[in-house]
């Protein structure tokens, strides 16, 4: 993907040079225009990722330029940041009302300008990822697995984007309160990370690529999966391993195996609600199930002593975005785990554990040999 480009529009050459230098020093490509008309012509030739637009220009000012951009469906989505010497609330609101996403007051602080530009470019990148995601979903609309996730994706992404937009509005309202701005930026970043996580997870079940199998030790795979479970979720939950099969060799895909097992362990950890980490025991057992007319099945059972399976979602445990947690953007762990193991010819199931809690069974068709 090409590096982002910012179009700088100002009737004063010295201002253009100042902004150009600040952006390019930070690794951001730039193009320039000296008037509103030049800006519109430049955009028609090659659409920039963002426009830094001077508000006060002769003949066609920034407000009018922004109105032209908003009137054209091809240019409406290009974010515009106004640069203005006006500091009144009314003038700032006027710029935001015609479609600008932000404003910078003169004299321009280059560090602040670069930070604001980078923030908007991140949103541009996220939007493009979502457009690409929608394209993939459109191509695979008739596939059953994709049909099941479409509604959940749209619902969660829309909710997360609403959060982002809401906090952006708050930032604009409290621009002169640094503590509030920092707090709201942190919340935007959290929502952004969830959006990126959804895009990545959906990509993992929509992109059909051959699974490369290699021979690895079972005990080593279990240990690396536990390490991944801890690292990915930033927790130190105790996991007890009962593996009588030892480090015997199995043929599997390392990425799929680790990802699925770590997600199932995370599901077990979350079943304890608000218990402290140390009081959330997870036990992992392995055994070899002999098949009369086919290869052996490796069974990995993950037990917890949590709240058990919620009756309201029992029949939909593996549907995307099904979760008992009241948090936007969660609920794909079991979906991804089952999909991954099924691509390897296995399966993932969940059942009530005798005595309370839940048992998740990961089934993997392999021939085990001494390692």
Task: Draw up the topology in text.
Layout: E1 5-9, H1 13-25, E2 29-33, H2 36-45, E3 50-54, H3 62-71, E4 80-84, H4 89-97, E5 102-105, H5 110-139, H6 144-173, H7 178-206, E6 214-217, H8 218-233, E7 239-242, E8 249-252, H9 254-270, E9 282-289, E10 297-304, H10 333-343, E11 347-352, E12 358-365
Parallel strand pairs: 1-2, 1-3, 3-4, 4-5, 7-9
Antiparallel strand pairs: 6-8, 9-10, 10-12, 11-12
Report on this model:
With 371 residues, the protein is an alpha/beta fold. The protein is 47% helix and 18% strand. The protein has ten helices and twelve strands. The strands form three sheets. The protein has a five-stranded parallel β-sheet with strand order 2-1-3-4-5, sandwiched between helices. Helix 6 packs antiparallel against helix 7 and helix 9 packs antiparallel against helix 10 (333-343). It is elongated and about 85 Å long. Residues 324-330 have low confidence and may be disordered.
Quick structural summary:
This protein has 371 residues and is an alpha/beta fold.
Number of strands: 12
Helix content: 40-55%
Overall mean pLDDT stands at: 81
Distance between the first and last residues' Cα: 44 Å
Main beta-sheet strand count, sense and barrel state: 5 strands, parallel
The CATH class of the largest domain, by name, is Alpha Beta
CATH architecture of the largest domain: 2-Layer Sandwich
Protein structure class: alpha/beta
State the CATH topology of the largest domain.
Heat Shock Protein 90
Give the total of domains: 3
User: How would you describe the shape?
Assistant: elongated
Tally the helices: what do you get? 10
Instruction: Give the radius of gyration.
Output: 26 Å
Give me the CATH superfamily of the largest domain.
Histidine kinase-like ATPase, C-terminal domain
**Strand arrangement, largest sheet?**
2-1-3-4-5
- Output the helix-strand order: EHEHEHEHEHHHEHEEHEEHEE
